[in-house]
Amino acid sequence: MVFASANVGFKQEVPQEQNTFLEDPVMVSVLERYLPAKVLDEISPDLIQICDWASTEGVALTARMEEDQPRLRQYDSWCRRVDELLVTEAWRRQKDIAAREGVVAIAYERKYGEYSRIYQMAKLMLWTSGAGLYSCPIAMTDGCARVIELNGTQEMKDNVYSRLISATDADVTMLLARTHDPSPSAAPNSMRDGSKGLSLYLANVRDEQGKLNGVRIHRLKDKVGTKALPTAELELDGMIAQQVGENYRGVKNISAILNITRVYCGMGCTAAMQRFILGVKEYARRREVFGALLKDQPLHLATVANMELQYRATSQFTFYCIAMLGRIETLDNNLPQVKNQDIPLLRLLTPILKVWSAKNAFAMSQEAMECFGGQGYMEETGLGRAMRDVLVNTIWEGTTNVLSLDVLRVMAETGGDALELYADSVRGMLAPLKDQPEWIKSVKSIEESLNLISHHFVTYATLETRNLLEASARGLTFAMADVISGALLCQHAAWSAAKAKTNSANSIIASEATIDRISAQRWCEDLEKKLSFQIEALGNETRYEEDKLMLFGLADARTSHTTTVQAAIASKL
Q1: CA dihedral over 44, 47, 53, 56, signed as positive or negative
Q2: Which Pfam families match (predicted)?
Q3: Dihedral sign, CA of 312, 313, 316, 318?
């Protein structure tokens, strides 16, 4: 009898990493719908090659960046403060590759007009698996470039913008700061309070001598994840900066950065989901348990199918927002489509996309780890690092609660116009499907869900019921994401069916159309019931009061009792 050992007996067949773009029909199908055929044909070789790079050199660079993390050298050998950030050669190599691949430049060269953003984000999505978190500075670079393009002086455009879009070192930072009130009636050196007193500034990180421009680095943050990305606690004192745009327009002027970074977050979360689902499916083809491959096990199939459905929905929502961003950046902003729909709708949807995609990407990272069993829990597989890294998306650019309240703010500031625009957009996607028998149930589900969202907002959008509306802000935000994603899935399935009809002899296209229909219809099943819990159960008066009682009632009562007893004792002394 031969006993199993390290060298003899069962060895799990190793999952093989494939070219992501060639392996993922979801992404290809989305791009095919949004891009003219000529554009997709031209960019496909570039998307294929970036996947090959990511799975070879990119993976190796990422591993080195994780092993040799950034360090801070605060003092030199003579005790002089230098605040030198030390990064690895791998990090510097990522900077060179980002410039070479044009991951920012593609969006601003605009070779393909409004479709350039889609091309850029598709490439970024495939690039991120080998970028080792270098996508974070790229997102900020992209946002900074857009702000300067819109509001910068000609000098800024000549000296800074041109370097930002080539992804070379512009070595600048943007920040909000208070501006001295220039009005004659204001006291000397007085400043306005609140966000209305903020202006936007652009500053060089270093002066002409190479010294930090009024910046002191106190420490690098010891984060849960994203450890290859240097994140520091800074003190700004005496920084020299140039104002960007008009006085007190800082929050408005920086909003272009927020739109772009939130779309980046959606793209990054979609990319993470893509890697999780492709990895899980590849492992399921090779892992045998209970005498059958995982891909043939009913419970495992059901689990992975839910993951696939979430990835498909997130892909639709993400590229819908990307397409809008592309139109806003390249088309005349006075066109009714852009001015009255794209601009206000993107402002509403970017916080929704960011919140929803971030939450679901982290949930999927945990599910993916389980799908790999014990191997998923091993650091060597990279799933642990991926889980820690994707978690940052729920924190960066505003937590779930902060951005959910931002969604309410947008709807309140527009007097409900943003909500009406959102509903009209969803109904516009469904209009061609209303009379088609196979879509009646799905359309009805989305219509009922839209009515539920509108009713809840209108009912509780008063000063007296503000607390109840805020309590359900998360539910409303997730509901709006679920509904528009459902409409987009239905719209995509209808497009896919038309494509199959045109190519009736192609069995692969027919199969894709069937899968797209199943995905859309399954997403819309019981959508109204799901949303009812998300919104109403979490935002009714009884629950609000019960939540306060459950969380703090007993502690407050004990505190009050203790204070009373102490006061009684003190009176007797």
Answers
A1: negative
A2: ACDH-11_C (PF22217), Acyl-CoA_dh_1 (PF00441), AidB_N (PF18158)
A3: negative
- The H-or-E segment that residue 219 falls in is strand 215-220
- Rounded CA-CA distance 418/66 in Å is 43
The rounded distance, in Å, linking the Cα atoms of 527 and 536 is: 14
Phi, psi of 372 (to 5 degrees): -90, 0
- CB burial of 327-366 (b: ≥16 within 10 Å; e: otherwise) equals bbbbeeeeeeebeebbebbbbbbbbbbbbbbbbbbbebbe
Lowest mean pLDDT among 264-278, 362-376, 445-459, 511-525: 445-459
Distance CA 221, CA 203 (A): 23
Q: State residue 195's pLDDT score.
A: 83
- Quick count: other Cβ atoms within 10 Å of Cβ 275? 24
d(CA 275, CA 522): 23
pLDDT at residue 538 above 70? no
Q: Return the C-alpha torsion angle 174, 265, 396, 140, nearest 10.
A: -20
Which tokens is 324 given?
A: 């809008």
Please say whether the beta carbons of 128 and 139 come within 8 A: no
What one-character DSSP code corresponds to residue 200? E
- Tell me the one-letter amino acid at 136: C
Between CA 98 and CA 92 the distance in angstroms is 10
Query: What is the CB neighbour count within 10 angstroms for residue 48?
Result: 15
Q: How far apart are CA 111 and CA 177, in angstroms?
A: 36
CB 348 within 8 A of CB 418: yes
Report the chain's terminal Cα–Cα distance, integer Å.
86
- Given a contact cutoff of 8 angstroms between Cβ atoms, the answer to whether 271 and 219 are in contact is no
Which of 228-232, 327-331, 459-463 bottoms out in mean pLDDT, i.e. has the lowest? Answer: 459-463
Q: Which of 134, 359, 139, 98 is nearest to 226 (CA)?
A: 134
The confidence score (pLDDT) of residue 8 equals 78
The structure tokens listed for 448 are 């009922």
Tell me: the pLDDT tens digits for 107-142?
Answer: 999 999 999 999 999 999 999 999 989 999 999 999
Q: Roughly what angle, to the nearest 10 degrees, separates helices 440-460 and 473-502?
A: 160
Name the percent of the chain lying above pLDDT 90: 73
Nearest to 200, CA basis, from 251, 141, 257, 260 = 251
Do residues 82 and 75 touch, judged by C-beta distance below 8 A? yes
- Nearest alpha-carbon partner for 267 in 103, 55, 422, 408: 103
- Quote the CA–CA distance of 115 and 482 in Å, as a whole number: 25
If you write DSSP's letter for every residue of 384-432 in order, what string do you get? Answer: HHHHHHHHGGGTTTS-HHHHHHHHHHHHHHTTTHHHHHHHHHHHHHHGG
Nearest to 474 by CA among 541, 425, 539: 539
Q: Which two tokens stand for residue 511?
A: 């199969």
Q: Are 284 and 371 in contact (CB under 8 A)?
A: yes
Q: What is the pTM of this model?
A: 0.93
